[in-house]
Known about the structure:
The protein is α/β, with parallel strands linked by helices. It is built from eleven helices and six strands. The protein has helices spanning about 1-10, 10-30, 40-50, 70-85, 95-115, 140-145, 150-155, 190-195, 215-220, 230-245, 255-285; strands at about 55-65, 90-95, 130, 180-185, 205-210, 230. The protein has a six-stranded parallel sheet, with helices on both faces.
Amino acid sequence: MKFINFINNLDKRWIYLILALCIIIPFLFPVGFPMKTTPPVKSIYDFIEDSIPEGGVVLIGADYDPSTMAELHPMAKVVAAHALSNNLRVLFVTLYPQGAGMAQDVIDNVLREWNKSNPDNPKELGKDITLLAYVPGVSAVVLKMGEDILQTFNEDGYGNKLSELEVMKGIKNYNNINLMVELAGSSVVLTWLIYANGRYGLKMGIGTTAVSAAEYYSYLQSKQAIGMLGGLKGAAEYEHLLDEKKVYGGRKDASIGMDAQSSAHIFFIILIILGNIAYFVKKRKEGK
């Protein structure tokens, strides 16, 4: 009964403190909770792993800003790292002004971590990966890329002429791109699906926030998208798959985030169970 009284009279500040620790500790000491990979995530991974020849091209759409960075940034990092691990070329593109900064941060991080982990197989900006310069226009940009990418952008996001970059060798339009993975937390995904996939037949995968994922399952069923990464969990699943290859030693942001989230959820479940036990014991005692 002392324990029940303790639960009923527990100061809320202790709950907030324990919750804070549940979230902070996994960021410092990752737990590594078991991860089950879902088919939409595995489909994108398998396509990059098995269906794109060496020297092929993966286009990654960084159509997001800092408000959805926590979920989408890890996706961009792990997909780019996977492509590089298979000696594929990676192009980033964005229809959002803020997306250019997001993409540049991903490129900087991936190149740094990759070259640190694989000194015998270094990757270079402009040779293996780059960012196409931001051009306003949204749907007009998507359509023009289907005709001629070099005429659409002229330069990369670092001020270099695209025609002079080794990473752009042999790339004219969507016919020369093996897969696009569009990362966005908004309806801009539909722009790419309607025009790039629907009109030009570009193979596409989707990466989106957890709250938006349900909107795109119909596109998986219709085969307009080969797969999807949904929220932080989708990114963590992809990290788990890539980790099995043991070729990339970068920080697993999504897996660490899922550890923190799962720890908080477990703590909440324990609180709910204890709260209900305390309630029914107290109610039973008052009824006697």
